């Protein structure tokens, strides 16, 4: 069978190789050749799964976004409003090694999306969906201006993440958690 | 004189060429060759001003950061607290063509700074300085938790900017302004 020699890898495994490169050296370094080397397969094996580098990038971005969104959706839906928002938004902050790696990858893709219609479309759908979920939670709790404040909650985690990752450790995990806690407190009006 | 043939350009002009490329095609596309072409000079002219591509990137990042920070410093210092914070923070949002271009450039450098000690150092100093200025303004106005809330104000503009630029127009300028206004209102406690 013509696909036999590629059976040792998958699109998901190649995406993991891309994430490793993007998180440590940046997305610029994630060439088809480097992704193949990282996955321990041939360039042909990558090309078997992805016709172009753009296809590989689109799959990888969608893959990481889906994974993070699935984790947001599994957030505690029976806790207090503060707990629910904290659980969901904490998934987007670089608070441990896994989330740090994901945040680096997602932020790098976000910047690339500024100049790419296909990546920009994924980013737009992702932000709109997360904002809609946050809006629903705030509206159900009768918080004023739910959509505007959902915009602020989403922007605060994206901004804290960008500021933390880009500044060689200006903020540690405890500071990021404190900042998120304060923002949620301001948005939902608890003192 | 050996420098005569390079007299038609300057480090600042080369940085502008780099900004044009970074804002429209991304920082990956800003090679020495492309910067030279954009500036209408030879590769040798770029190499005369910058020994390496990293040197060029460091100068360009510092240059755009200095320009934006100078504009923040010229903010109205006699208006209300809301006016002063709005004036300063609006400089960091992509509200017109000039700020959109700068925001694209600074965001691209921020992501690159995640994997670069030299760029990360510039980013760290920049964020720390802006946060300190915001903290001073909040503290002088006797706002509670001034440093924590300054962290939130900085993160909100960085997050709104990243979300707006990356999502193919999810937010327009009016929405960004409304979001900033609401965040300032929440942080300083005015109703």
From TrEMBL, chains A, B:
UniProt entry tagged with the keyword Protease: no
Residue spans binding DNA: 31-50
Pfam family, any one: TetR_N
GO molecular function terms attached to this record: DNA-binding transcription factor activity; transcription cis-regulatory region binding
Domain of life: Bacteria
Domain HTH tetR-type: start-end pairs: 8-68
Keywords assigned: DNA-binding, Repressor, Transcription, Transcription regulation
Protein name: TetR family transcriptional regulator
Lineage, top ranks: Bacteria, Bacillati, Actinomycetota, Actinomycetes, Mycobacteriales
């Amino acid at each position: 069978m013509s696909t036999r020699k590629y059976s040792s890898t998958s699109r998901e495994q190649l995406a993991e190789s891309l994430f490793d490169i993007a998180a440590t050296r940046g997305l610029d370094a994630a060439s088809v050749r480097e992704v193949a080397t990282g996955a321990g397969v041939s360039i042909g094996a990558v090309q078997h799964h992805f016709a172009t580098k753009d296809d590989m990038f689109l799959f990888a971005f969608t893959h990481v976004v889906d994974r993070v969104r699935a984790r947001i959706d599994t957030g505690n839906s029976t806790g207090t409003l503060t707990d629910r928002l904290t659980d969901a938004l904490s998934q987007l902050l670089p608070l441990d090694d896994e989330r740090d790696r994901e945040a680096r990858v997602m932020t790098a893709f976000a910047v690339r999306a500024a100049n790419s219609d296909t990546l920009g479309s994924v980013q737009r759908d992702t932000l709109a969906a997360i904002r809609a979920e946050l809006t629903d939670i705030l509206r159900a709790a009768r918080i004023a201006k739910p959509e505007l404040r959902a915009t602020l909650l989403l922007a605060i985690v994206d901004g804290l993440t960008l500021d933390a990752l880009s500044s060689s450790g200006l903020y540690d995990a405890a500071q990021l958690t404190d900042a998120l806690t304060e923002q949620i407190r301001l948005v939902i009006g608890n003192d």
